[in-house]
Design a protein that fits this description.
By secondary structure, the chain is mainly alpha-helical. It contains 3 helices and 2 strands, in the order E-H-H-H-E. It has one domain. Strands 1-2 form a two-stranded parallel sheet.
């Protein structure tokens, strides 16, 4: 029994080093989920204004844990 796995896409979540502003986390998230970079960055700024500590810690952790991708 042979199954074609053309529908499987190996996309990894990684920082986007080409379109980065600070560290590339928002650019990497936008690229992974096929969203506009400006929308992800605006969402991050809104989250930073509403929940500053949690968003700041999450961004720092994502910066340290996400691998770089050119």
């Amino acid at each position: 029994m042979n199954f074609d796995r053309e529908y499987c896409v190996n996309k990894t979540l990684a920082k986007d080093m080409v379109h980065k502003k600070l560290s590339g986390v928002c650019g990497g998230i936008a690229k992974h989920y096929n969203l506009p970079r400006i929308a992800v960055r605006a969402g991050a700024i809104v989250a930073l204004l509403m929940f500053p500590v949690a968003t700041g810690v999450a961004y720092l952790v994502a910066t340290m844990l996400m691998p770089n991708k050119a």
